[in-house]
Automatic annotation (TrEMBL):
InterPro entries listed in its UniProt record: Ras-like_GEF, Ras-like_Gua-exchang_fac_N, Ras_GEF_dom_sf, RASGEF_cat_dom, RASGEF_cat_dom_sf
Gene3D superfamilies from the UniProt entry: Ras guanine-nucleotide exchange factors catalytic domain, Son of sevenless (SoS) protein Chain: S domain 1
GO molecular function, one term: guanyl-nucleotide exchange factor activity
Organism from which the protein derives: Caulochytrium protostelioides
Designated name of the protein: Ras GEF
Domain of life, per lineage: Eukaryota
PANTHER family per UniProt: BUD SITE SELECTION PROTEIN 5, GUANINE NUCLEOTIDE EXCHANGE FACTOR
GO cellular component: plasma membrane
N-terminal Ras-GEF domain boundaries: 3-134
Domain Ras-GEF: 185-418
Pfam families xrefs: RasGEF (PF00617), RasGEF_N (PF00618)
A GO biological-process term: Ras protein signal transduction
Length: 465
């Protein structure tokens, strides 16, 4: 135990006993972490079930008198059985995975015999949850090609309440024929991007995050994490391509201004993941080197972009963003890459066992569990109305966006060639002075940023200009 009374380590038997202790309240975060991270420190779910059954069927010490035995049953056995019941309910309701399906027959037998006998008024809830998982397991057997993670998640999805409030009417462009991205209102563009990413984010289950399942070549497949990461990368490529595809400097500036406005709307929607893709595109050297283009971007828009960059800057391990996120209510699309980085740091930086090798290092799993549970609290659907035609347009352009850093940089050089060395320093100095805020305290944009470019997980590297 640490100074705050949290469990730091123990044998599996001791951890289960703590889960079902009779003489004090069980911390909900301990219970949730135990089942959330269980497969990382237990050989099999069957072993946990056997320990829980053992706790439920504790044997009264033979040396007790009849009166003492009655007190023991009332003050220990009854509370322990209630704790076991609550533990099973939480396991079935919130943390059951496809890996646990193998013990469904044993669990069914235990619930229908022991629990039904001793807790007849409570057993119906466990039976209801059990039946739902049995039906899901049967469906999975009949469709073996189905995604196991998705099948597991579907049982929980119905329990996630949607965000409250009426869906706002979409802001539709005048025509979807020969549509240009600047024809789409920035707010509606932000809404539809949010819905596309939210669809993937809501499907991410803990199995995709635990044990670095999302790391290349490590752990089990993480289809929704990978799909969301890929969408972020394609979004960055699409925004960059959209800017570079305009042959005229003023049109490129108009495109930059449009995406800055989209970024502001994404921030208002608490969609930090898409916002990071916008920032990564506009803050890449492929775009920032376009001095003549940025000269056409008004100061107020460059200031607005700097505000967005400040919200997501990586100074002090994203301190400003983390502070903002703590006070953000769901629905929200957090920057997924930072969660993955935090999980990797936690899992790689802490041993599985406590010093001596006999006790499970539960402190490690508490830390990882807190990260995952923080992400889960944002998995609430947005109350936004999808526009299928606009989403199809976006998916088509995201799928065909240029993502090769070499190709993008060649496009950048083609529209604004490198400045001859004799004039380069003079033009850079003029451009930097032109980008100072009225207060003179902050540079909005310089030709070469001194800070590392803000990039989402897996986004493409950019050559220096």
């Amino acid at each position: 135990m640490n100074m705050e009374g949290q469990v730091r380590g123990g044998t599996l038997e001791a951890l289960v006993e703590r889960l079902t202790v009779h003489d004090q309240l069980v911390d909900p975060s301990y219970t949730n972490t135990f089942f959330l991270m269980m497969h990382q420190f237990t050989p099999s779910p069957g072993q946990v079930l056997r320990l829980l059954i053992g706790r439920y069927n504790l044997v009264c010490p033979a040396a007790l008198t009849a009166d003492e035995a009655a007190i023991w049953r009332e003050q220990k056995l009854v509370p322990v059985r209630l704790r076991v019941y609550n533990a099973l309910k939480i396991w079935l309701e919130h943390h059951w995975t496809v890996q646990d399906d193998a013990i469904l027959p044993d669990l069914d037998h235990f619930i229908r015999t022991d629990v039904a006998q001793h807790q007849p008024l409570l057993v119906w809830r466990l039976l209801d949850l059990l039946e739902r998982h049995q039906q899901a397991a049967t469906r999975l057997m009949l469709a073996p090609d189905a995604c196991a993670l998705g099948a597991c998640r579907s049982l929980k999805r119905a329990m996630v309440p949607p965000s409250t409030g009426a869906r706002p009417a979409p802001i539709l462009p005048k025509s979807m024929v020969r549509l240009h991205i600047t024809d789409v209102d920035p707010l509606e563009l932000a809404r539809q991007l949010t819905l596309l990413e939210s669809h993937l984010f809501l499907e991410i289950s803990p199995d995709e995050l635990i044990g670095q399942a999302c790391s290349p070549g490590r752990g089990a497949p993480a289809p929704h994490v990978r799909a969301m990461t890929q969408m972020s990368n394609h979004m960055t490529g699409w925004i960059t391509t959209s800017v570079l595809s305009e042959p005229d400097g003023k049109r490129r500036a108009l495109m930059i201004r449009h995406f800055i406005k989209v970024g502001e709307r994404l921030l208002a929607l608490n969609n930090f993941n898409s916002l990071m893709a916008v920032i990564s595109a506009l803050n890449s050297s492929t775009v920032t080197r376009l001095v003549k283009t940025w000269n056409h971007v008004a100061t107020k828009h460059r200031h607005a972009f700097q505000v967005l960059c400040h919200a997501m800057q990586n100074d002090k391990n994203y301190a400003a963003y983390r502070t903002r996120l703590r006070s953000t209510a769901a629905p929200c699309l957090p920057f997924l890459g930072l969660y993955l980085t935090d999980l990797t740091f936690t899992e790689d930086g802490n041993p599985d066992m406590r010093p001596g090798g006999r006790l499970i290092n539960f402190d490690k799993y508490l830390k990882a569990g807190r990260i995952i549970q923080e992400l889960q609290r944002f998995q609430v659907p947005y109350a936004l109305q999808p526009v299928e035609a606009l989403q199809a347009y976006l998916l088509d352009h995201l799928g065909t966006a240029v993502t090769s850093p070499q190709q993008l940089y060649s496009m950048s050089l083609a529209i604004e060639p490198r400045i001859p060395s004799g004039n380069e320093n003079k033009l850079r100095s003029m451009a930097a002075r032109a980008r100072l805020l009225d207060t003179g305290k902050m540079t909005l944009l310089t030709v070469e940023s001194t800070a590392a470019p803000l990039t989402p997980l897996g986004s493409m590297p950019m050559d220096a200009s």
